[in-house]
Amino acid sequence: MRLDKSRIATLIPHAGAMCLLDEVTRWNADSLTAVCRTHGDADHPLRMQGRIPTLSAIEYAAQAMAVHGGLSGAVTSRPRAGYLVSLRNVVCFVSHLDEIKGELVIEVRRLVGDAERVMYAFSLAIAEHEILSGHATVVLDADISSA
Q1: What is the side-by-side order of every strand in the sheet holding 117-126?
Q2: Other CB atoms closer than 10 Å to residue 52's CB: what's the count?
Q3: Structural domain span for residue 50
Q4: How far apart are CA 122 and CA 65, in angstroms?
Q5: Per the structure, how many domains does the chain have?
Q6: Distance CA 15, CA 25 (A)
Q7: How far apart are CA 61 and CA 107, in angstroms?
Q8: pLDDT-derived band of residue 101, with 50, 70 and 90 as boundaries?
Q9: 123: which strand partners?
Q10: What is the CATH number of the domain that holds 140?
Q11: Is 110 helix (H, G, I), strand (E, B) or coil?
């Protein structure tokens, strides 16, 4: 099942230009694949001094993790926030996202977790060339008023 940007925005605590994912192309109970086409935009919200450092792409992965949590039922209400508490084995293969042309493909795979914390492996690639990978642990702050 594919999801567009408007549906993605209902599953993450980000809005407007900070909702970075354009589309979810595939998901199941263990993993999710999403795409983004905006990393070359001049007004991209993660630009710093005119550039988008590749480490900023961790935010793409974090948003994909949040979407996966909502779709898979691991998160039963929309979190107010997710706190990235640990990054491990992060490897960057390029210095800036904006210098690469093509669709950015974000893949996340849930390793372990519950409704309060979760660990994922993530990778980002353009045209099958990996540009960033690693592991992330996130602690969720669920909005109990919407439960």
Answers
A1: 3-4, 23-27, 31-36, 104-113, 117-126, 129-142, 79-92
A2: 21
A3: 3-146
A4: 9
A5: 1
A6: 20
A7: 7
A8: confident
A9: 107, 133
A10: 3.10.129.10
A11: strand
